[in-house]
Amino acid sequence: MSIKVRYFASLGEHLGRSENDLEFAQGMSVKDIWVLSTSGAPIPDNVLTAVNMEYADLEAQVQDGDEVAFFPPVTGG
Amino acid sequence: MSIKVRYFASLGEHLGRSENDLEFAQGMSVKDIWVLSTSGAPIPDNVLTAVNMEYADLEAQVQDGDEVAFFPPVTGG
Amino acid sequence: MKVEICPEAFNPWQAIQDYQAALPSAAAKFGATSIFIGTMRDYNDGVGVQSMTLDYYPGMTEKQLGKILGDAGRQWEIIDAYVVHRVGEIRPDEAIVLVAVWSAHRGDAFDACRFIMETLKSTAPFWKKEVSDTGQTRWVEKNTDGYKNVQP
Amino acid sequence: MKVEICPEAFNPWQAIQDYQAALPSAAAKFGATSIFIGTMRDYNDGVGVQSMTLDYYPGMTEKQLGKILGDAGRQWEIIDAYVVHRVGEIRPDEAIVLVAVWSAHRGDAFDACRFIMETLKSTAPFWKKEVSDTGQTRWVEKNTDGYKNVQP
């Protein structure tokens, strides 16, 4: 199993991809997922994060099979 | 010339009329108009008053030809 | 800005669309439209209501509504505002009042729409007389602040 | 309560009427309808805009909008609420978002409609990318608080 990582809008454009998979390891936080997926790129100040389509903070623990998403401030409405 | 006095809604029903005329005299206030038109009936606590279709208070002075109105709290919308 | 006193049943959706269509200069300039529609319910204060008569003060009512729109236009950045208010005999499910505000930004549209509605409720000369399910007639004594929990 | 993500241009007036017609049990029970419509302008931050693309997070966007409606229903006495949000390529003068709230009383309708709109603006995963008059593309960086005077 693995973690699916998704990136939206300007953040995805900046990284040059909209998603990638990552091997699951026990004890990983959302922040760890970012670091591993981007090879240590700095986390944007205003990044929003979600786990399984619900907002979660950077310290939240992820589980095998989770979908983790990173995106910029939302601008709908 | 004279003053036209109008009464609306429950207040008009209570008084049994929707309007009357009154001889104009110098120095009359809205309150004086009420007293003269109703032969001294007590002024309802929550009465609203208008002169020439604009809200005015009981102490406002009236002029010859004015239209003075008394009505209960409004309940539109 | 426009105020209409309407003695017949009206379709609020059609009224807004017609009004908006006549604002060509505003097209693509307004980003926000805030609308309130007051509709007659078939109950009030726990009593069934079969019909209602809305009395008003011809002349002053229009003047006061116009004043409210003017005040809103001075307090907020709005592009246009439109009020339609029903008078005469009204049946449940018919529209009583429509307030529509067009603005570039949502905050101004929301605030102005609410201001117009609240000020109309407390100052525009309209009076409701209800006929209950049992045929009894009563004047509505006062408007409330509009929240369920604090109804008298 | 219903949330719709709409990839094509929609008529907000028709959408509200269709939704309301499907609420027969609510007829004559709601006294208040509060509506907000967000429309695409042909300018933003002083720059002419010729089109816009609205990106979203399929699945999470619907979930988050549903959560917002549920929160509104717990905080205010509302009868129903309905949100339609456009995605994809949008042209000036087309509707972006519709929020409609039906309630017995106006205070609840106004407050819930505003809450839904503000919470949508700050938490629903949508992202706007604008194409300016000169053909330049830019991501809108953040939503503002919705008042003209405090636009950045």
From TrEMBL, chains A, B:
One of its GO terms (biological process) is Mo-molybdopterin cofactor biosynthetic process. One of its GO terms (molecular function) is transferase activity. It comes from the Bacteria. The keyword Nucleotide-binding applies. The keyword Transferase applies. InterPro entries: Beta-grasp_dom_sf, MOCS2A, Mopterin_synth/thiamin_S_b, ThiS/MoaD-like. Keywords: Nucleotide-binding, Transferase. One of its GO terms (cellular component) is molybdopterin adenylyltransferase complex. Belongs to the MoaD family. This is Molybdopterin synthase sulfur carrier subunit.
UniProtKB/TrEMBL annotation, chains C, D:
Keywords: Molybdenum cofactor biosynthesis, Transferase. One of its GO terms (biological process) is Mo-molybdopterin cofactor biosynthetic process. Coiled coil: none annotated. Pathway: Cofactor biosynthesis; molybdopterin biosynthesis. It is an enzyme of class 2 (transferase). It catalyses: 2 [molybdopterin-synthase sulfur-carrier protein]-C-terminal-Gly-aminoethanethioate + cyclic pyranopterin phosphate + H2O = molybdopterin + 2 [molybdopterin-synthase sulfur-carrier protein]-C-terminal Gly-Gly + 2 H(+). Pfam families: MoaE. The keyword Ribosomal protein does not apply. It comes from the Bacteria. InterPro entries: MoaE_sf, Mopterin_biosynth_MoaE. The keyword Membrane does not apply. This is Molybdopterin synthase catalytic subunit. One of its GO terms (molecular function) is molybdopterin synthase activity. Belongs to the MoaE family. Its EC number is 2.8.1.12. Heterotetramer of 2 MoaD subunits and 2 MoaE subunits. Also stable as homodimer. The enzyme changes between these two forms during catalysis. It comes from Methyloglobulus morosus KoM1.
